[in-house]
Amino acid sequence: MADMIKRFETMLEAGQDSPMLRLSLGNALVAAGRLNDAIVHLEQAIEQDPGYSAAWKLLARQLLATGDAARALRTCEQGIAVAQGKGDLQAVREMEVFARRARKQLELPPAKS
Predict the structure, then answer these.
(1) How many domains does the chain have?
(2) Is 49 exposed, middle or buried (0-12, 13-18, 19+ CB in 10 A)?
(3) What CATH number is given to the structural domain containing 101?
(4) Digitized pLDDT (tens) for each residue of the chain, 113 residues in all
């Protein structure tokens, strides 16, 4: 995994930055247990392409995993809107699950459908 992370970082340093590269690096960092580092790159992926529902989904999951339920919930809400707009129903369903978990952590009532 460290080799893959290094390869992605080298690509970034060489100016090959893209939302897909940031998502790939984020995934590799998650697999290595470096969640906070992954969050930085996932946020960059979304900044570069606000319509990238896969990045929204992975970011929401990692925010929830790091205990940042409030940010996870906001990310889910934004990501769900993006995914719905693209017709990415699987991402919508997954982020709805993350949003429910975040609300539970925050002790908020369930969202109205």
Answers:
(1) 1
(2) middle
(3) 1.25.40.10
(4) 789 999 999 999 999 999 999 999 999 999 999 999 999 999 999 999 999 999 999 999 999 999 999 999 999 999 999 999 999 999 999 999 999 999 999 988 777 75
